[in-house]
Amino acid sequence: MSSRRPSSVTIREVGPRDGFQNEPEIIPTDEKIRLINSLGRAGFKRIEVASFVRPDVLPQLADGVEVLKNIDVPGDVSLMVLIPNSKGLDNALKVREYYHEASIFVSSSETHNMKNINRTVAETMSDDKVMAKRILAEGLKLDAVIATSFGCPYEGRIPLDRVLGLAEQFAEFGATEIGFGDTTGMANPAYVADFFAAALERLPGVELTAHFHNTRGQGLANAYSALEVGVSSFGELGGCPVHAGSTGNISTEDLVSMFEEMGVDTGLDLNRVIESAREAQAFLGRKLTSHSILAGPVDWTGTLAAH
Amino acid sequence: MSSRRPSSVTIREVGPRDGFQNEPEIIPTDEKIRLINSLGRAGFKRIEVASFVRPDVLPQLADGVEVLKNIDVPGDVSLMVLIPNSKGLDNALKVREYYHEASIFVSSSETHNMKNINRTVAETMSDDKVMAKRILAEGLKLDAVIATSFGCPYEGRIPLDRVLGLAEQFAEFGATEIGFGDTTGMANPAYVADFFAAALERLPGVELTAHFHNTRGQGLANAYSALEVGVSSFGELGGCPVHAGSTGNISTEDLVSMFEEMGVDTGLDLNRVIESAREAQAFLGRKLTSHSILAGPVDWTGTLAAH
Q1: Which long-range CB contacts under 8 A does B276-279 form with residues at least 24 apart?
Q2: A84-94, pLDDT tens digit by residue?
Q3: I want to staple B186 with a disulfide (CB 3.0 to 4.6 A). Which of B57, B94, B151, B288 is the partner?
Q4: Higher pLDDT, A247 or A236
């Protein structure tokens, strides 16, 4: 069993971007900064902190530059920003010294891509190719994300070949990491196993990141399934808005709890991750759908029976 | 991959017993009957409907006989009752014609067993052996359940050998099904894989049932893990109380949703299972922590892209 299970994983924390962008209320900038600093102390080595989307479209993230300039995380933390288009990249490059990685993206579903960014997939990939060159020319690490990789509410299951074809294009553009997003929570663990087994074979040398939502409660099952076929990079959301019944992400702390209890090293201090989640819960003024906040980690030390 | 994944599974619905016994309010008998009838229509072939525990200890289930006598489910549904001790069995056998299976149980943790039923594990097994004979003599199917199989909050991880040793004793008593309960939600999918791989090897010819709680959000991941090593029987709880953050069971509808989307046949009508859960939600007067009630099933038919 589980011969391909990695002994350690990297978790890319996307809460300050993916979480806050979905909040109905705009989170105060100093609260965002405090949360990111807290995530840094918890041990995250990669944190997505801003998106260079138009502020009139997403006022929730309009303070991205101020956040970038004022956070204080350990020097080995790689800060990531999301770039929706060339105009966004223009703005991002004005503050290029404040982050280390830039993510470009597309949706594998034509309908979803059109509804999300009002362009065809081909138009998006064409722009992404130009952006990729500029990002790499700046010496930044290039990441790419493919939304609706496991299904789309408008188009159903997106053929595996189409998704992996887009991933291969991103690899040609120079992306060293490609994330596959279960944007509306339609993945199941059997499909995830088949998907990543194929992806790992077709994209050698590229870091493949799995990003699951918990819409149908299968988020951690999908993460476990991906892990078992050899995926060692996960993008999730801790200390952040996950509405019950929404298409919200897995709570990072629940993912960390599962991996650590399995003996898979995340490099994170789970108690501190939970503490970050509690802080977010406090300033959001409502309970998050995290299990670990309530149940805590399984602490075998001290109570461990002879085994 | 997944060479041991069964193509179909059986789900034993324990909601009317395990769910209602944890409700602070006593559910009216006619509501219980309506829910059980609804579960029967949804396609469940095994439903646990009563527990013969002392009514002063669990007034929530004091109406077990009335429930048994008045439910109306298809003729091929096997009704199950839980028997805590010989006195409970005396009472259960007075209405023997109203059910088909009887479950005896023990906790693999001495401390948990003592706190739960105020007896040592050895005393419990000794009484269970006597009860097993009487149950089999009545021509009933004998089931057994081992609580805290994957860990105990007082004793930590219970050694695998101790748990499987108890299971072997139950098999000797004549149990044809043995359930392993993650009573307080301490299992993780790596341990579950190792656990059931060993259990399936050591207990040939016995139906092994996995029963997980979702305390740390890992319930479906554990179910998937058990499935992948060959477990085809699951005991869960649909249309019933699962408090957020409690040690509550997985929602059956979420389990069914995952299996059906994976192509594993449950024999159930997911929409009807969700309907049962909605009915329970209505008479409980509060939202359940089911994802499927909110998100619904993934319905590929009608929107399925060329694949």
Answers
A1: B276/B35, B276/B38, B276/B39, B276/B42, B276/B238, B276/B239, B277/B238, B277/B239, B277/B240, B277/B251, B277/B252, B277/B253, B278/B239, B279/B34, B279/B35, B279/B38, B279/B239
A2: 999 999 999 99
A3: B151
A4: A236
For B134-156, write each residue's pLDDT tens digit.
999 999 999 999 999 999 988 99
Q: What is the mean pLDDT of residues A150-156?
A: 91
Domain assignment of residue B305, yes or no: no
- The Cβ of residue A65 has, within 10 Å, a number of other Cβ atoms equal to 16
Chain B nearest-CA distance from A218, in A, is 6
Within 13 Å and on the Cβ side, how many CA atoms surround B169?
Answer: 21
The C-alpha atoms of residue A85 and residue A119 are separated, in whole angstroms, by 11
> Which among A247, A251, A291 has CB closest to B245?
A291
Is B157's CB within 8 Å of A300's CB?
A: yes
Size of interface A-B (CB pairs under 8 A): 171
User: Measured between CA atoms, how close is A196 to chain B, in angstroms?
Assistant: 12
- Write down the ipTM of this complex: 0.91
pLDDT of residue A61: 83
Looking at the predicted structure, is the pLDDT value of residue B200 above 90? yes
Cross-chain CB nearest to A245 (options B186, B220, B295): B295
Select the residue of A185, A300, A303 nearest B295 (Cβ to Cβ): A185
Q: What is the pLDDT of residues B243-289, one digit of tens each?
A: 444 557 788 899 999 999 999 999 999 999 999 888 888 888 877 77
Tell me how close the Cα of B49 comes to any Cα of chain A, in angstroms.
26
Yes or no, beta carbons of A190 and B215 under 8 Å apart: no
Active site residue A240: yes
Amino acid identity for residue A43 in this structure: G
User: Looking at residue A300, what is its pLDDT?
Assistant: 59
Q: The domain containing residue A258 runs over which residues?
A: 10-295
- Cα distances (Å, whole numbers) of residue A35 to A52, A92, A236, B287: 20, 22, 15, 30
SS3 (DSSP) at B118 = coil
Contact A239, A35 (CB under 8 A): yes
CA distance B136 to chain A (A): 35
Would residue A162 count as lying in a domain? yes
pTM above 0.90, yes or no: yes
Q: What CATH number is given to the structural domain containing B181?
A: 3.20.20.70
Helices B189-202 and A252-262: crossing angle in degrees, nearest 10, is 40
What residues of B are in contact with residue A247 (Cβ under 8 Å)? Answer: 295
Candidates A154, A157, A245; nearest CB to B291: A245
The whole-number average pLDDT for the span A272-292 is 84
The residue in chain B having the minimum alpha-carbon distance to the alpha carbon of residue A263 is B190
Q: Which residues does chain A have within 8 Å of residue B161's beta carbon, measured at their own beta carbons?
A: none
CB atoms within 10 A of CB B236: 29
Residue bearing the bigger pLDDT, A20 or B237? A20
* Interatomic CA distance for residues B157 and B193, integer angstroms: 15
Query: Is residue B3 in some structural domain?
Result: no
Question: Around Cβ A29, how many Cβ atoms within 10 Å?
Answer: 14
Considering only CB atoms, which chain A residues are within 8 Å of B264? 190
Which burial class, exposed, middle or buried, applies to A245 when counting CB atoms under 10 A from its CB (0-12, 13-18, 19+)? middle
- The amino acid at residue B75 is G
The single residue of A132, A178, A227, A240 carrying the catalytic annotation is A240
Structural domain count, chain A = 1
Which candidate in A9, A150, A188, A227 is best for mutational testing of the B interface (most B CBs within 10 A)?
A188
> According to the model, what pLDDT value does residue A227 have?
97
